[in-house]
């Protein structure tokens, strides 16, 4: 259905953005506001603030499309104003819809396979659509928790590809000791080795992080350079690499919000066999499970029945970080079918459903935030109804995936 609301000019959209950020949102960084100011890096808008902005725009009769919301942290004010005005952004050279990044640990492991050439890394994304959903005792959703060890992905990196990953970070040791470990690994680094510490992206002002969150625990790859004061950071999840001051990276590693580090070597890496792919598929695939949707429903219901309604907004703050994992379905389909040949149309149709699932989760998030602020029962009812619809949609995607897997296995893979 076409949105009946009038589309503003880019100039009107920018004026509205200025009024909202300076007025009801009272953004403390308005001194940086201007056409070239980036929403995340310069104006400090994280996913929660962007949701607030989206609601205020809606009140002004201006719709922010779901794909615009997804890209918003990296957009400039001018780019957002143009998007709100319906200007289609130019396609960039690095766009790759088939290789969407959805998990920093998996992306780093896959980078080693891609560096070797000829190794299809996508099997490691199997099941990531149902990746661990963390809900703490205050009914808050999170993509990260201190007790997550990523052991599942490390196990399958070895089972599929022969990658043997060592955990060098010692949780019981002081930060300074772990920094010494990091220094030693970088001092002995050679091509084909991968040093993967956890860092807090919020302390790297040179890097826009997709979700503009603080803190933002994130795994990346580090390498030494000829200059001891500069390290090379490779961030496969955000498709970025470049030199950064070693002092900034040390500070991001030492921040109390992060703790973790792995190392591995790609020398013995090999392609995954069909048998190993099938074993991982069976280990991860549940045709009826919708753990993220179920978790969101539990959070909504808890904040209606027992917890303060106002706490619902921060409880769902990290949903955008987790919702993007649904694009892992695309990786699985690409493994199991001829997506550039006979299966192209069927693949595109299923990709549309995957995008609708991701966009629907964002829409539920918006409804939930609106309910948290106003208490309007209509928003709550719509969010719960949307969750039921999305569960049916996701099970349909899984049914397609199961059909493709059966066909792939029946053909002898």
Automatic annotation (TrEMBL):
Traced from the root, the source organism's taxonomic lineage reads: Bacteria, Pseudomonadati, Pseudomonadota, Alphaproteobacteria, Rhodobacterales
Instruction: State the protein's name.
Output: DUF6005 family protein
State one Pfam family annotation: DUF6005
